[in-house]
Amino acid sequence: MGLESALQPLRASLRGALLLPGQPGYEEARKIHNAMIDRHPAMIVRCAGVADVTTAVTFARSQGMLVSVRGAGHNVAGTSLCDGGMVIDLSEMKGIRVNPAARTVRAEPGVTWAELAHELQTFGLAATGGYVGTTGVGGLTLGGGMGWMLRKHGLALDNLLSADVVTADARLLIADSREHSDLFWAIRGGGGNFGIVTSFEFRVHPAGTVLAGLALHPMSKGRKALEFWREYESTAPEEMTNGALVFTPPPEVPLPEALRSGPVVGIGGVYVGPLEEGEQALRPMREFGPPAADTYQRVPYSAAQSMADFLWPKGRFNYWKSSYLKSFSDGVMEKVLDYYAKAPSPRTVVVLEHNGNSAMSRVPEDATAFGNRNWDYNLLVTAVWTDAADTEDNLRWTREFWSAMRPHLADSAYVNYLGDVEEDSVRAAYGRKYERLAALKNKYDPANFFRMNPNVRPARTESGSAGTA
Questions:
Q1: What is the pLDDT of residues 258-297, one digit of tens each?
Q2: Which of helix, strand or coil describes residue 375?
């Protein structure tokens, strides 16, 4: 049966929508967070439930179609879209079921961290994962899940209890520590390589009201602010997850006139724990400088979850580079500040994350497929701009900045931040775990059906063959 004649029974078998080029809804559905990504799939299957997912997988296999899988569409590399193939779109699958007595929650793959935080807030609970509320629960968890409770409760995937997974042969498997435990190991860090997760069950934590915000310093005092932050992080309690940011405040953000003349250095984060103890822990940060602006306050965790969203709105052009740092040295500080001063776009943000002395680093290295837990600091350069005509200038600046940073970079990266998903980058992100992942890929997806992602290629068989590239 040809593709055209097969579309009618496909559409009839779906509870969700089948969107084709030229039809209402198609253009909007092919837009994702990063405006740099402009691809034209042959069809978009907007799934309403698990049955639609298995139907889409079965159809795509029968037609030999390239497939990409979209959750919230936030991944900067844009692997959720493909040209000329099928997009299995999970963005409408937004079921959430909270069990406050057991402190667990089930979430479908279209849920964002802001939506999950909203549901949990009623019960004074929160799920660990996500610095930005518009990020999808699914993609972030499968690649790791750094977020505002990382130092106290680890990664999102460290709190994953079970998952329902549709595999490349359209089976629905339950993966947890007892059932399909090898698959459970692989999806906790291995991304979308092993199937489509249609339900995530998480352990959640008490986090009703928290302390959250930013202490902001003008660029002229940026070096001293970063030096202070480095020292502060050496003794900060694990209830406090902080980052340092270099950015230019958007005009719509109300700030003192002293911070309106250009870039700023911000030290921001969330304290999850007894509030009085948190006030004491924050005091050095709020007094140093003192900051030109201090936005720390007591807020619901659901508000803290989205407090950084204004820096990365949907529909702008994005180009990212990221790697763990060998150390947060004076040389790193100098280059970050020097290069940011030359950034061609005021919307660009440079982020320094502290992951050390944390619940994340205490999980045994081989417990999950997550690439590396032993680097204390992570550098993320997010070039963001609004006009396509400025693309070359922003790409050039980012690449020059990254070249200058190379002596300071570790040989590993956080896979969710990869703007480049070529094989060398993916191998570096997983390190020695790559070969184990490749063997499991050969078991669960030997033809590399799920390859629009930071792809792990199936291990070669004894005959020397491997999955489709």
A1: 777 789 999 999 999 999 999 999 999 999 999 999 999 9
A2: coil
Instruction: State both tokens at 37.
Output: 């990504």
Residue 382: pLDDT over 70: yes
CATH code of the region 209-417? 3.40.462.20
Q: Under 8 Å CB-to-CB from 220, ≥6 apart: which residues?
A: none
Burial class (CB in 10 A: 0-12, 13-18, 19+), 406: exposed
CATH architecture of the domain with range 96-206: 2-Layer Sandwich (3.30)
The structural domains of the chain, with segments of one domain joined by +, span: 3-89, 96-206, 209-417
- Distance separating alpha carbons of residues 125 and 207, to the nearest angstrom: 5
* Residue whose entry in the numeric block shows the structure tokens 């459970």: 184
Tokens of 162: 């079970």
| Top CATH class, 3-89 | alpha beta
Buried b (16+ CB within 10 A) or exposed e, 248-280: bbeeeeeeeeebeeebbbbbbbbbbbeeeebee
| 149 closest CA partner among 289, 352, 304, 365 | 304
Question: What pTM was computed for the model?
Answer: 0.95
3-state secondary structure of 7: helix
**What pLDDT shows up at residue 256?**
78
Mean pLDDT computed over 198-208: 97
pLDDT band at 2 (very low <50, low <70, confident <90, very high): low
Q: Which amino acid is at 180?
A: H
How far CA 364 is from CA of 132, 179, 367, 375, in Å, comes to 27, 21, 5, 14
CA distances from 62 to 116, 447, 462 (A): 35, 13, 27
Q: What are the tokens at 466?
A: 């491997």
CB-count exposure of residue 179 (10 Å: 0-12, 13-18, 19+):
exposed
Alpha helices (H) along 95-201: 113-121, 137-143, 150-153, 181-187
Torsion angle (degrees, nearest 10) of CA 54, 116, 36, 333: -130
CA distances from 153 to 267, 369, 401 (A): 21, 18, 33
